[in-house]
Specification:
mainly beta, 1 helix, DUF1684
Length: about 190
């Protein structure tokens, strides 16, 4: 593991990404915010950046990935392949939050074409401080992952799927294997 992590630089880059996303949501023609609501849009809600949620995860690669069927918000089903499992520990300063070891499965469509790994999940904030359908993360390794490899999984990048903002989007729901029994107050918030 590298000791070159600079919290201030990381926080500034995260805040820049959040500002860019707010601008996209407010102005871009492909924004999930319905056009009639964009003028009133004042930005997404976020948990404060917290380096405790930038964790090192150990990769278990699935050489012969199992297909996983996910339900979607419109009642359809989509098929993904479970290509890896990411195991990580949470160690937090807040005594109210439980620490422990957790796993999240990472998926790709059957024809990935260099797609990032898709990591949909639920946690104990789901339906309260975050969207009831769960949140997403993506991991874009610059090469094929290897078994036992250490990767950075930044839970501060967890985001709300577009279907939370408009019913014109159809989003996969996290499968039960990615329902975490822990509170992850990191990334995007969403309150109806």
């Amino acid at each position: 593991m590298s000791n070159s992590f600079d919290v201030d630089t990381w926080r500034a880059e995260l805040e820049d990404k959040r500002d860019e996303k707010d601008e996209f949501f407010a102005e871009h023609p492909q924004s999930p915010i319905p056009p009639e609501e964009r003028e009133a849009f004042s930005g997404l809600e976020y948990f404060d950046p917290d380096a405790d949620y930038r964790v090192h995860a150990t990769v278990s690669v699935h050489d012969d990935p199992d297909p996983v069927t996910m339900d979607t918000t419109t009642g359809r089903e989509v098929r993904y392949l479970r290509v890896a499992t990411l195991s990580f520990d949470l160690e937090r300063d807040d005594p109210e939050l439980s620490d422990g070891s957790y796993e999240l499965a990472a998926y790709q469509m059957e024809r990935p074409e260099e797609e990032p790994l898709f990591i949909p999940f639920r946690d104990k904030t789901t339906g309260q401080q975050t969207y009831e359908g769960g949140r997403y993360m993506e991991l874009s390794p610059d090469r094929d992952l290897e078994d036992g490899e250490d990767v950075v999984l930044d839970l501060n990048l967890a985001y709300t799927p577009f279907c939370a903002y408009s019913e014109t989007f159809d989003c996969p729901l996290p499968p039960e294997e990615n329902w975490l029994e822990v509170t992850i107050p990191a990334g995007e918030r969403f309150e109806e």
